Amino acid sequence: MTYTLWYWPEIQGRGEFVRLALEAGGIDYVDAAREQGSDALLADLNARHGRTPFAPPYLETPEGLVIAHVAAILAYLGERHMLAPSELADRLWIEQLQLTIADCVTEAHNVHHPVGTGDYYEDQKPEAARAAQTFRDERMPKFLGHFDDAAAHDESGAFLMGPRWTYADCSLFQLVEGLRYAFPQRMAAIEGDYPALMALHRAVSDLAGVKAYLASDRRLAFNEMGIFRHYPELDGA
Amino acid sequence: MTYTLWYWPEIQGRGEFVRLALEAGGIDYVDAAREQGSDALLADLNARHGRTPFAPPYLETPEGLVIAHVAAILAYLGERHMLAPSELADRLWIEQLQLTIADCVTEAHNVHHPVGTGDYYEDQKPEAARAAQTFRDERMPKFLGHFDDAAAHDESGAFLMGPRWTYADCSLFQLVEGLRYAFPQRMAAIEGDYPALMALHRAVSDLAGVKAYLASDRRLAFNEMGIFRHYPELDGA
Question: Any keyword Methyltransferase (chains A, B) (predicted)?
Fold first, then answer.
């Protein structure tokens, strides 16, 4: 009953949203490329035919089902391991929030790679500076405000669904972590505007599975190969 | 038993992926902002509290459930109206393809708005030219090749699931339409490399519901306010 996660072994990236849910839920998994390296990930991806993942991360279930896309992986895990509510309206709301988180992650990546996904950041610095300003000024408040409203909605506890955490809570924790790493000045200036989201972040960091994971060597550090990158010239209050 | 779709009334945009599935499936819906205007859409969005959509499109079901995000809306309609297979592995595959389509749509939008989502295209033309080249040279072949493999997988018919269409087939039709509109030279140069995808596109255009919709005044024309925009300077073989 062990899952196999395939993702780049040097970065948190999009894979981290899956790792966090697995760790918080105490679900057995192998982080395959961390054991076998990037070449093994590429070899695995290239050996698949037919229903091939478009890109990592992808998760192989104990039964051999392969699922790509963070939102799809988490929806599956949510249903199977009760990491999300089962009632339709609640479950759909968590799925929508996860898709909005995915959009925010894509925009955070676009900040340092606005014009050439295949080029280095160093080759698109002026463009990145402009993209960063839009992201800091317009997009961060819009996304964070939305998630703060969602976190404030159920007053019976700090999580989106009140007293019980879901996979989307773990993802919001990671989003806040990533934004704090990439934009420390900007986050210091505005995060006080989002008290419910910050309380949610603290509550997730207190979950036993998350706490143990963050203290382990399984948790990679943020770095400038991932999605959330700290380039001081792209930050600002 | 009527759905209410809320989306910008002047453009195809992301809403078109929902419209097409509803039309192909012969499902009753009201395209609310086309009847009442953009101000009514904004008023509706602002009047919602609690579980508010992050952005249009969003769909209100006959029971009053509100769902945002194209992939979530289509997954819901797929299950309820049999616009997708019910077997788990098949259903998950269709959901993953839809999420990959969503990523391609986001990248197509990024081409003309790489550094400032709130700014005009005219204020980011050099950046857009560079983003367009990456998209044409690297990303279009990667996405189209992936979808062609998916279309070729089941040889018992032109659709992703062989003889029976799904909502993701409708979305692939729309993606090809959009790319042809935005990048006619590039598509003319490469679309012959993707025969299964092009056969799928033709098969969708022959569906009775789609054919009737495309011939009606409900189908808006592509224009330079939507996601797929034809700026000749961003195209090239």
Answer: no
pLDDT at B118 over 90: no
ipTM: 0.97
State whether CATH 3.40.50.1000 applies to domain B88-207+229-234: no
Architecture of domain A88-207: Up-down Bundle (1.20)
Distance CA B112, CA A165 (A): 39
* Superfamily designation of domain B3-80: Glutaredoxin (3.40.30.10)
Q: B82: which DSSP letter?
A: T
Chain A residues inside the 8 Å CB shell of B88: 65
Where does chain B hold its CATH 3.40.30.10 domain(s)? Answer: 3-80
pLDDT at B166: 98
What confidence tens digit (pLDDT) does each residue in A180-216 have?
A: 999 999 999 999 999 999 999 999 999 999 999 999 9
- Distance from the Cα of B102 to chain A's closest Cα (Å) equals 10
Judged by a CB distance cut-off of 8 A, whether residue A86 touches chain B is no
Mean pLDDT on A107-115: 95
Shortest Cα distance, chain B CAs vs residue A66, angstroms: 8
Where are the CATH 1.20.1050.10 domain residues in chain B? 88-207+229-234
For residue A127, the chain B residue with the least C-alpha distance is: B115
A115/B118 CB distance under 8 A: no
pLDDT digits (tens, 9 = 90+) for A33-50: 999 999 999 999 999 988
Q: Which residues pair with B59 in a beta bridge?
A: B5, B67
pLDDT in tens, B79-99: 999 999 999 999 999 999 999
Q: What is the mean pLDDT of residues A123-128?
A: 94
